[in-house]
Amino acid sequence: MPQPIEVKLTVTPTSVKVNEKMSFEAKVTQGGSNVDQAQEVTFEFWKDGSEKHSKVTVTSAGDGKYVMVKSFSEAGSYHVISHVTADSQHSMPSAVFDVK
């Protein structure tokens, strides 16, 4: 049985102003080693109270990191889930961040 994948989701910074850029990073490891060949890494975003979700697929930036930079045009509290599939395993860590 393969070792479980581990995914650490980081949002930097956790609070921004409207249209300011922020970084989303999923760091993927397995057994202490970086995973640069994940089958899929997708960030899913939505605003509190909204039915509308958007998904963005990202590729490896090396060192087990999957990174995207994004800004938001509306103030509010937002959610992000990183959907990561690697070695036939799926992990979905999530985070909350604010746009003011």
TrEMBL record:
Residues 3-83 form the YtkA-like domain. It comes from the Bacteria. This is YtkA-like domain-containing protein. InterPro entries: Ig-like_fold (IPR013783), Invasin/intimin_cell_adhesion (IPR008964), YtkA-like_dom (IPR032693). SUPFAM superfamilies: Invasin/intimin cell-adhesion fragments.
